[in-house]
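worker-03 picked up job from queue 'complexes'. Input manifest follows; three sequence lines, order preserved.
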Amino acid sequence: MEKVKISTRQFTCMLFSLLLSSLMFGLPRILIEQSKQDVWQVMLITFVVDALLAIVYFILGMRYPQQTMFEYSETVLGPWLGKIIGLLFVLFFGYMLLVTLKIVSEFVFTVLLTETPELFINFILLLVSFYAVNAGLEVIARLSEIVAPLILIPLLIILTFSLNRVELENLRPIFQHSIWQLLKYSLLPISMYGVCIVMGIFMAYHNKPKESLKAKWIAIGSVTVLSIMTLISLITIFGTSYSSQQIYPVFRLAQIIKVGNFFERIETLVIIFQIAGAFVGLVIFYYSSVLGLAQIFKIQRYQTLTPYFGVIMLILSKFVFNNIAERHQFTETIFPYLALFIEVFLIIMLLIVSLIRHGIKKT
Amino acid sequence: MRKGKRVIYTLLILVIPLLISGCWDRKELEGRAIVTLIAIDKGENNQIKFSVQIARTSDSQASSNGGSSGGEKSSIIMSGTGDTVFDAIRNLILKAGRKLYYPHNTAIILGNDIAREGILPELDLFNRDAEMRPLTWILVTPGQAADILEAQSTLESLSAKQLDMMLTDFGASSKTVATNLLDTMKQLAYDSPGAVLSNIELDPSNPKKTLLLNGAAVFRRDKLIGRLDPLETRGYLWVKDKVNAGIITFPCPGEETKKISMEIKKAKGKIEPDISEGKFNFTITVNVVSRLAEQECLTDLGNPEELMKLKKSQNEVIEKEIRNIVDKAQDKYGTDILGFGTELSRKFPQEWQKIKDNWTEEFPKAEVNIVVNSKISDIGLVKKPL
Amino acid sequence: MLKRLRKLRKLKKLPACGQPETENASRPPSNEPEAEMNLLTSLLTTNLTVLKERFQNSVDIVFREFKVGFDPNKSAALIYIDGLVNPESINATILKPLMFDHEREELWKELNQHDLLSFIRDYAVPNNRVQEFSQLQDITDNILRGNSALLLDGFNSALIFDSIGFDSRVIQEPATESVVRGPREGFNESLGTNLSLLRRKIINENLILEQLNLGTRTRTKVCFAYLNGVVNEKLVNEVRARLQRIDVDGILESGYIEQLIEDAPVSIFPTVGNTEKPDILAAKLLEGRIGILVDGTPIALTVPYILVEALQSSEDYYARPYYVTIVRWIRIASLMFALFLPAIYIAIQSFHPDLIPTPLLVSMAKAREGIPFPAYVEVFLMGMIFEILREAGIRMPRPIGQAVSIVGGLVIGEAASKANLVSDTVIIFVALTGIASFVIPSLGDAIPLSRLFLMTWATFLGIFGILMGSIILLIHLVKLRSFGVPYMAPLAPGNLNDLQDVLIKAPTWALNTRPRILAAWNSIRGRSSRPSPKKK
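worker-03 finished. Artifact:
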């Protein structure tokens, strides 16, 4: 176990940048396409569900202090079953790492560097995150503490300076979907919010574990507010049809900013900070995967695994998802169920078994 | 020792990728040609003719379009053909040598023939490619779009710059529309299957080729079906709540031969859909604030009674402008360019789902009421003429 | 880690710097084999021979032999080094009373004592500091430091008198860190003067000055200062241990020490601060830092050193806070300019010309026409010329320096762009970058190197490269620690309370706490509240 401690602020910042950046690329399109003007209701449902799930993670973390999710799943389920569950978590983090990597490199490849091979972009991203991962959780936490405002401020700048193009008429009609439809549509965002199961790792290193729940609520609350603001300005400015046509609507939003005759063409600068946020997500998934592997197989220093895992990810990134369309289809159809199985079912099951085996009073 | 090795490894890891990367994307500024205007026409054999205006950055001797007063010309025009727009763009590189660079493109001008066949196929590339920006203006011309590129700029050194300024200030007269790629795509995406784009021509009154924004072009879905003259265009703008300023002229109350100019200070337009007994009613409400800007007649208009009369005449003029465009949309074009369908879908989503598919038949039958309220805010510095 | 700390706690305090002119402690172990040779004998002639041998007939050693006035049979010798001592003080306080003092002669006879040495020490010599040594090494060291040694026939120990008197620079306003408002005095090359300057700033018995002699050959006096009750005890132990670990033959400047105690010696970022002004040093001590002063240099070191200190200046605290806040942001902007401007220029020029407005792009493209080099070569070239000019300007004698700057600034800049070697835009960018980096002099190492690093990334990957490069720098920065304090504090780990002296400069009455990161356990500075006129 590393002897590191992270503060509540860092805890919040990590979850914040992780979530916000994974929501900003690609997801707004799918959300608007599905639930149109009612998208804010979907986000609110997501927030409530995830805030409740956070309690489950929190209780587990409090019952097994100083233990990460990989360690307490062994404590709860015994060495063998626990290792298998732990491996499932690692697989999930590995998959999220791959997806984040793909999202960033696809974006860079389409928008910034069209001639540079994607594999090379992946290589650079993995190399830099390798440096961060090996530096340890404390460094990752501090990094996200600096990056979080850097994602937030440019996003607020886009939202503010695009206000002059808002057409509120586009918000109508509202309440066109039934509650069941909304619940169905919120499966995807819930599964995206569910990446917060990394909380199960961070809590073990939190200097005040009791504040974890508060930190997580602040993080998802602010992310929800920001994403609702973004989605609403997308709908009011672009309309639902145009927004659901665009693969990167937030990038488009930055493109149309024009204040006076000089404050324009800022999309690259704005979007580069979103990439920085996604990079933090990448680092967190990378760290979680290798830490998980190390703890499952009882390896003293997770750092020994980092390079090998990175190389595997680099090779996989070449073969998983031939193109963006495949990834989008997977994200829309299969991913939510897989993710919810791990984020919701496994965790709740862990809690139930834990309650049965170790009694309710153990806190 | 171990630390020293680590430093060396780190440096190697950092430097090697940079060296092997070989700068795939690096392209120096002098290797790029900055495209400022694009024109798309129908070429021979059903091909696409793609012309660009390139800002001149070098001192080489090239022909074509010129700046204002002799000497060095500020832009170059090139064109290429191909089966699709992108094919034509790539064929153009064979002629240009430099890589054509599009993010600074101001406008895309569509030729008449291509517009009649539908503009969506041509605009797809501009919507898809990250190099193209959604704020690019889209214009239609009655003739060949490539001719517009040849137009001479008068006050600016680049005609593209001038076009940009003309379109940005379209509201000063409110007699034309200014639509960028984003607006165009939004109009095409809405439930009302029509679009209105700005219309550009070469000024017929000027023997030197200069630009003139003249009215607007009307599209059914993405196909050009006709044009609006400047006043009809303003009728359209009243309804769409896009009038910012402009001049309304009408005869003097006393002397019919003399005219009066009213300057629009503020205008607000609104469409209210309503369904009664299966019939669709639309009420267009326009609120105008204007001021007396000029009078040719010698009557004293500076009293409330006369101003009431002015107000009435102004209401009639505006109502006529709007009625013209409504009639034209309903009868002549049979296309809902005014966005009635969109309003209907917002207010009555359920009914809209039923009517959506045969809206083209229903639209001409809809009843339209026009309500104009105006207010004259001031009469300037002169109480009455001499 | 813990074990080391426990060990550190057991370490003894070093002698105070209060007696900086004596030499009896922390002396490097002598290498001489025969121990008995290191002691004085009671025969004066033998002693003198031994000492003469020890100094190997150096010309500036003076052996003044004389007879003691009130006991004429006794021969004595005063040994000192010419040039290090003040001859007037020797004549007046040592030689004169010993040779002529008749009052003492009566007293000597009256007391009828036999121990002449103690009599001299206790009654005869009115010198401000007298010590007695019998080790040859101690005597030699003291003579070398400018004290004088009195040997008496028949005694196997010597009296050491304070007679230091060499020339040193007067206290001047330092060339660096000049201020408009604030004290003008700066340290000079004499440790004694420097300590006195510091003492005069903080009149408190808790200002502790501990001394070491470092450098096996130079035996330079090094002193570290801290405020007891403010400073973190662990930090003091850590500094003491690191200083004691130093093993080099010579310390000529505090820079030697800086490089020997750094946390991250391979990092381009400095983890030890320095200052030339006593008021700044005093301020740092009050914040809970430790200062290290070295004899022979006006530059004092301060540890721990964190990045935000580079953005603060002493004047920030003397002036009223409002404009200072703007100045803080100007410094932050300058730092950003100095780091990113050339890289962004390269990225825009070679990868993303879509970032700048069309008219600017057209004129930039026009300026670029006919230039044979790609943008990065252009920037590297101009950057190098700038650095050459800067270096020449520093090394040149001042009158020629101006000529260099004219030739460099006007002729080369103008001619290079006329000759189409570089574009005008590059000259503006490089000049702006250069000037911006002068705003933050304390990061003199880090800024040019990081800039070069970012430029390289920008050359190959454009703005995405800049992002990756800056993330690498950022990771490095948050990883760094200076004496246990995170380098990027209070940004990461963040502390809102400390940030009010970073992002803004809160008024003095609001800055009631020390940086939490340095003195978490004792962070209250004072309890002054917002001043307001007295209510009646």
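worker-03 released lock.
The radius of gyration of chain B is 26 Å.
Chain B touches chain C through 26 residues (CB under 8 Å).
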